[in-house]
Queue: 2 jobs
Job 1
Amino acid sequence: MSIRSWLRACEKRFLRPLGRRVRGTTDGTRQRSDELGRLERRVEALESLVRELAGLAYLRLDTVATTAETTRPAIATEPREAA
Amino acid sequence: MIASTVLVDLRACQFNGDRGIPAYAQSLTAELVRRPSGIRWLLLQDPRWPQPPRAAELAARASWCTIADLEGPQAARVDAVLTGCFFLPHHGCDAGYLLPACLRRQQPRRLGIVYDLVPLLFPDRYLANERVRRQYHDALGLLRRSDHLFAISHASRRDVIRHAAVDPARVDCIYGDIDHRKRTLMAVSAAATARTPGRFGLTGPFCICVGGDDWRKNMETTVRAFARFRRDHPGHQLAIVCRLPDRRIADLQKVAREEGMPSGALVCTGYISDEDLVALLQHAEMLVYPSLYEGLGLPVLEAYGCGTPAVGSASSSVAELVLPELGCDPREPDSIAAAMGRLAGHPALRERSLAFGRRLLAEELGWDRAADRVLERLAARRPRPPRPPDGRHRLAVVGALPPARTGIAPYTLRHLQDRRWRTTFYEAGSALRPAPPAGLLATSQVVPTEVLPVAVERGRHDTVIFVLGNSAHHVDVLEAMIRSRGGGPRRLAYLHEAAIEGLCRGWLGPEADRLPASDAGDSPVPWIRKAIAERPAMGSCLRFLAERAELDGLLVNSEACRDLIRAALGPLADRWTIDVAFLPIVCPAATADRPPPAAAGRPLRIGSFGMAGDTKRLDLFTQAAALLARQRPVELVIAGWEARRYCRRLTIPAEIRREVLDAPDDETLAAAMTSVHVAVQLRWPTFGESSGVVNQLLGFRTPLVVAEVGSFADLPDGVATFVPADCSAEALARAIVTAADRPLAPDRHDAFLATRSPEAFAARIAEILAAESPAANATGRADNSRGPLLRSPHVRRPAGAAAAARES
């Protein structure tokens, strides 16, 4: 028996049944992967935001965005305190 | 140019009756559709829920539609979407619901109304539920990526800038006004409604508070404040107007009793009709509105409209609507009571408050003003900013840069910067660069693509060039192209090939397959016909760029590419200038020694370089080598990505010595290129793309055999030997021998390389940058009659002339 045919026999006898069993138990994993996908998208969005803010700072375009336009009255600047 | 079809998403108006957000969105829409703007208005609703209250009124000037109506092949093309509200209360109203696939595919300009960001500011109160939080953040992401936003107050605008990190230039405050219907009711004289307060048990002077069953409406503190006010002003009553559950009413009555108020001093009316609301406002002594947080505060405006002064919070948007002397700290009952006392005790203050309200309504607010701002922003392009005094052109290049694994990246970095202009590279990719890339000029800089919309909005650039190839490396470039629409600078796309369906699929996903087809004509040129037949999606993707990307023109590497784009796109190609700038050829400082001639007995070394694939016709190449091997010794050199894997599929006779270099580095590839007697670079079908490998071979002065199609046909006779694209192995073998035996003509080669030098390329780019496109600025369409540019030395002759000259 050649090595190749021996490997193929192993695959048919052990690996494929094992694969079927594993697939049968992955419903929960799939749900978790959806959640992971969502988290990945969220992380990508946050990374994108970081890049944007870093780029704005580098080009000195952030000064207007974060200071001049957002000076607000005392109460309004602390909305969480009102909670 | 104004967007011709605008979809107003009014699905938010199908909830919560006709007050608040539904009232605002419908009133603004009514004003927009009333204008003779030439826009076709579509109003979006969800068939699962009841129609918006003013559906019939709006239907007179606009058409209602559903998502299903926008799905079909005959569906209307939407140029812009105005989202009435981003945050819908129902489960499943996430980003996919707000911007369904049929709209995402069309990539219309996206505008939206922002009322407030209350849940984001008070997450413990509003976003405790995981599902709600996820949905809210989903919608918030969509809000951030909008082209333009309209906030209903300056406070909301500041919140969007500060808490959602939206660029200030992309948010306008448009305010709003009193609902049209309530305006009509306010015209009725107060005498006609004198009995209405009595029906609700309001027998004496009373204050009114219009609220809701929401924590931030601050009802308990209002009752406590009123109790303190009443100690100095006995006989007054407080009317709380809103729908409240019995449990909440009992709680408020309990607070009133605790504060020593007699029975009947606090009246909770429940939900009342607009007629009754207007009547109560007309007869109230004052409106008390100490809300903890508001997006606008429509009750204050309604009170002014009814001739009633208002006391309100000195925070959020309410601070903009009340007289500063009548502002209060909404968390302190004493502060509210003091403001109420000031108003009740000073008739002059009452007059000032009413005058302030009248001025506000007459001069700052109004649906007509709000509609004007929205229509202004629907206009496609804004004027180009003036150039700074030093006069150097400010170029933005958006593309992938090294080390991105695309051949376009090094070209972009190396050749799109020059001392004649200032380049800002907007780099596609996910990483922040810790240090500038090697070879960056002192006058250039590199920043992420995310910054482009803001930089364009602030007039930082005179021209933006989007560098595109057909791979996932350029998805960010496409995204930046769409997100930076509407800005002033000239916008060019540098297409390295005409077929960009892989790029579109990487960006739009499966939706890319549903892009509408272009109006491609039947081309007389065989290779163009073949290319269009092979890739039908090519025209769809180019049409998407033509219709959605707001480009002034294209920049391509070859006349062949230009001809293919025109053929694949049809009449839409007239929207663009299409300038040709041949890829520069970089000659090595010292050309390596050429191999000795393949004399009798010596093997003939033949090479094929670049990424292996079916289109490179390596099968024909090996057949020709096998034919030659019958007459003389032959060695094959095959180098490039996937070379080893591909060579396993080829049948190469055993007597031919072969050298396969899989994914060689630059030095190895260069050594291999200079070691062969002839390089064979075939391509069929071709999509007009230029070949970096052919350029390298020309720089090394390696004798070349190329297929006479696409961009290869632009090469002059003296520098390459041509074979028909569908030639036989015998013909290719003959061409190889001819190329190997024919001596190079150094003068002709040098003259050719001079026209393709990096200096000539830079001069060509400078020429393109210097060219103005006034037509584009005025109408959004570019002038296509640019003869002088195409006659520049860098572009030798019109399309097809090279092939015609050789045939003659």
Job 2
Amino acid sequence: MSGERDVIVHLDKITKRFGKTVAVDRLDMQIMAGEFVTFLGPSGCGKSTTLRMLGGFETPDEGRIVLDGTDVTRLPPNRRDVNMVFQDYALFPHMTVGQNVAFGLELKGKGRSEIDRRTGELLEFLQLGGFEERTPDQLSGGQRQRVALARALAPDPKLLLLDEPLGALDAKLRAQVQVELKDIQKRTGKTFFFVTHDQDEALTMSDRIVVMNAGRVEQAGTPEDLYFRPVSRFVAEFIGETNLLEGKVRGSDADAIVIDWNGVELRGSAHGHRPEPGENVMAALRLENVACHPDKPAAANAVQGRIVSRLFKGSRTALDIRVGERDDAVIKAYVDAAKAQGLPQDHLWISWDIERLTLLKDSA
Amino acid sequence: MTRHTRILMSVIYGAFVVYLFVPLVLMVLMGFKDSKFIGFPITSWTMDWYLGVFQDTEVLTVFAYSMTIAVSSTLLSLAIGTWIAAFLGPNRFRGKLIVFALTCLPAVIPGIISAISLRIFARLLDIEPGMLAIILGHTVHNVPFVALVVMARLSTQPKSHVEAARDLGADSVVAFFRVTLPYLKPALIGAGIFCMLLSFDDFVRAFFLGGYQPTLPVLIFAMLRSGMSPEINAISTIVLILTAVLGLWAERSMRRLNKGA
């Protein structure tokens, strides 16, 4: 795989309704070969329905699903080159690990020697060598998850679906498996379609994140895009911790837009929006993008304030900083815990990179 | 609970156990009595009655006949009951409750009613009284038990198991035989043994639907009418031991089933 990536999946304006609720609403999206794409959103946002439509377990009411040039919209699960890692792993309890992994290969009509070779290779690759004869109930949660992965990879699918496969693991193991999963994806070159409600998982592993809300795509982009340049309040709030600043546009100059927020002038980036002066807007500023200084910094977009609350959180301290006159004009900030101790209580300065204070599209 | 009530409870329970087991013990004892007359005192003991059972070709033939009926009706019941459970379990449709109630009905209809109606029905279908009629009669009675047990087991199978099989290339038939059926195995064993016992034990249906060849309970009944003989005790004891062993095994596998193993 080199150079330009090919489109492996095209979701062509698919819509799925359950009764009166629209689970997925005219979703239009392309997935590139070898991409690790994550559908992120709260439960009921349509991410799992999308995954199930790709797997063949639901049929879209409208639109087409094209897999590697073939329309598979109405094909049953057993006739698509797509395999799935289920949330509960769904390992067959009456089969050994080896038989589980071999299942898909047998149904593809492969010969015994090829099945054995491929099963052995995959188990070795996923550090499950020597586990062939065990049954699923003799494995730990992490091992079961890897068996489920091996079983889904065995038939060499064009697309691998992963339905919140880390949900059942404890927090420590989950962090480790995130790294492993990304590594496996890179080494196999497979296209991963990952579904989760956990922003950490999404940010750690994905090449691209698609944030869904109420059946629609809120924003799609690289983890950095979504984190630093959220386009909507939903995305800003769903990923990371954010100051949401509602104010009026006062004007704009060459590289910044100026917002009047509770009587304080804040400077930020419009990111392509062209709001008129006087318009009501909303902007987002990440807590860790707020820099605190004991003295007035050189930056133009610095404002003075005073600390109204400090919360020690170990490596960092959460500060509530009141700027301006009004009580509710509070900006939250994360500061390095050691640095926070040296900050004056009453007259400190805060500043931020103009690019980091971003205007949201669903302003007002 | 006070000391007195506890003693009282133990006495009542003891009395119940005595009431339950004394007839069985008497029956077993009389089978070893070296005399044609049943009753005390027992002056000498013998194994002759048991040896007689194993040499009595009529008894052996009837035993084989009853076993054939039990095994055939059980296999039929398992096939039909599992099919009904697989159909009723996952599907939602209008009138499901009615279909379910109809399925259960044969299990609660009084034996004599069901036997008479089956006799009439069999004649209508030109089925001669005999083995086939009894097998069909027992199957009708047993299917509800299979369906209920299998449905209970089926409801504990995660939906994802079948989906995973479909995902890996199995059509719905292959998925059923390779994933669902193995999952149902403990339920099928338990229900199967239960059906065998019901069929083997049945008198009323076998009596009404049978031809000249009697089943074991019908034979014992006929022997009783020509006078109590210790040979009957010997036959009954053998049946008692066989069914107790099978029944306990079934109970055990049902209990494992409920634990979800």
